[in-house]
């Protein structure tokens, strides 16, 4: 069962990297929307307020993605070290990941399967 826990740790790290990339892309889009709203070019957007709102929304989503990705990286490293508290936090993340179709659902279901089996529990006790 240790190989399943190790694989789950790597999946958490990979999922965290994906969310860090999403945060980076969202930050770039937020900067672009802000530049559009504050631009002084002859071609102005129809509503600079809409561009600012879009920029703010993208920034909030980027910060959330950054936090979510960093949390997955942290938990992935702790799972790989077989820390008992990491099992509980990974189960909490698994419940939330179930909503993120399709890859989050697969990760959440696999995490529940690995971490709730008796063999999986014993990995973190030893």
Describe the structure in your own words.
- The chain has 126 residues and is mainly α.
- It has one domain (2-125).
- 84% of the residues lie in helices and 0% in strands.
- It contains 5 helices and no strands.
- It has helices at 2-38, 48-80, 84-97, 103-116, 118-125.
- It starts with a helix and ends with a helix.
- The relative contact order is 0.17.
Largest sheet: none
Domains (count): 1
Strand content: under 5%
Mean pLDDT: 92
What structural class is derived from the secondary structure elements?
Answer: mainly alpha
What is the radius of gyration computed over CA atoms, rounded to a whole number of angstroms?
19 Å
| N to C succession of SSEs | HHHHH
Residue stretches low in confidence (pLDDT < 50, at least 5 long) are: none
Extended strand count: 0
Terminal residue distance? 12 Å
Principal-axes geometry comes out as elongated
Task: Walk me through the topology.
Elements: H1 2-38, H2 48-80, H3 84-97, H4 103-116, H5 118-125
Helix pairs in contact: 1-2, 1-4, 2-3, 3-4
Keyword list:
single chain; 126 residues; mainly alpha; elongated
In short:
The chain has helices at about 1-40, 50-80, 85-95, 105-115, 120-125.
